[in-house]
Amino acid sequence: MNKKNLYDNVLEIVGNTPALRLKKVESYFNLDNEVYAKIEYMNPGGSIKDRMGIYLLKMAEKNQLINKDTIIVEPTSGNTGVGLALYSTINGNKLIFTMPSKISKEKELLLKAYGAFVVRTPTNVKPDAPNSYYSVSKIIAKLIWKKNKKLTITEIEEIVIYVQNLVDTNNLEKLNNILKEDIKENLLAYIPNQYFNKYNPESHYRLTAQEIWSQFDGNLDYIFAGIGTGGTITGISKFFKERKEIKVIGVDPIGSIYYLIKNGMKLEKAIEKAHTYKVEGIGEDILPETINLNLIDDISVVNDQESFSMTRFLAKKEGILVGGSSGAALIGAIKYIKKNNIKRKKILVIFPDSGRGYLNKIFNNQWLIENNFEVDDEKILEVLK
Ligand code: PMP
After folding, report:
1. Could you tell me which residues come within 8 angstroms of residue 116 by beta carbon, excluding any fewer than 6 positions away?
2. Is the pLDDT of residue 102 over 90?
3. Does the UniProt entry include the keyword Amino-acid biosynthesis (predicted)?
4. Pick from 186, 214, 231: which residue ends a domain?
5. Of 88, 77, 79, whose CA–CA distance to 43 is shortest?
6. What is the pLDDT of residues 143-164, one digit of tens each?
């Protein structure tokens, strides 16, 4: 941060997010520890994905995988898309995102607000199905590569409408044909792919972790973080473990595969056992290349209800409006602290994004009731005291 807090472009105000001590939470749960939260919604794009999205494209530019005419295509449910959009303002790159239908309309509109095109895909399909959000992003890139010339906005729009129509009419045969086509990649489209890009954990190693280290002078005993792609926890853990003894604990929702694998279950069996849950941004039904489970000491498992109750409690008691994965990370931390009788330690919990994107869900009693959740937060949290 410079002295007068004056900046020239949006990239300069990414990072340097505050860490806030959660004193109300400490006393409510009788925790004899210092518990801090890293408040990532203070980033300009509103989440922990700002540093990462920007870093992926910076490295792609450095490695000559993109230029100013490259269209960025990515399967994303929101936060990563915003990070990519921030970097795209530098060279004016166009963006196309694919997004499963379970993600709210608001998140689609959010990405469109940054000038992106969005293609919606069905939710309950296998990742390798031709209409999954992963496959559709590849199909879009292939159609762009095939054009082999710089596209006008109208031509981009035509591709978006064409693909959306194939998805909406469930034309799996045509989608599959395009997916299987052997088309040479070129600079016209690029898929950063946060699930397979080594620069995802590296961004957190070089940026997020470094920042946390200097905030606490390395003086932390535990770090808790939810696991999505695993980029955050893997990058942070590597940086800290290279420098000191620390316990890094992942938080995983019931229905995800991570805690099953960490406890020795075979990948295929864990994938078979995976089922849906409502908390967004954490847990997976595939094993991304961006996670290193060896760098995670243990995993604390949480359910939707306790995650949501904790999220709502945070807004009311600490004045911090965060998303469900933050509530999940905190309740996962508290359960772990209690279970292992951890005392007099300095603990950091990562809060990845803002609650504003979830006003119609977690913070809407009607939605909770319709989905059979308890709206009395303290009734849920009291028993975890
Ligand atoms: N919380 C939210 C809201 C997210 O969008 C993500 C990213 N999927 C995470 C947590 C997990 O971060 P990571 O992918 O780095 O594990």
Report:
1. 81, 85, 94, 95, 96, 97
2. no
3. yes
4. 186
5. 79
6. 999 998 999 999 999 999 999 9
CATH number, domain of 281, equals 3.40.50.1100
Atom of ligand 1 nearest to the CA of 326: 1
Contact 93, 70 (CB under 8 A): yes
CA 352/CA 310 separation, integer angstroms: 15
Domain count, the chain: 2
Has 49 been annotated as catalytic? yes
Residues comprising the chain, all counted: 385
CA-nearest residue for atom 11, ligand 1, is 228
Q: Does residue 242 share a domain with residue 112?
A: no
3, 24, 49, 105: the catalytic one is: 49
Residue 301: CB atoms within 10 A of its CB come to 20
Q: Please tell me the pTM assigned to this model.
A: 0.95
Ligand 1 pocket: which residues have CB below 6 Å? 79, 226-233, 280-282, 323, 325, 352-353
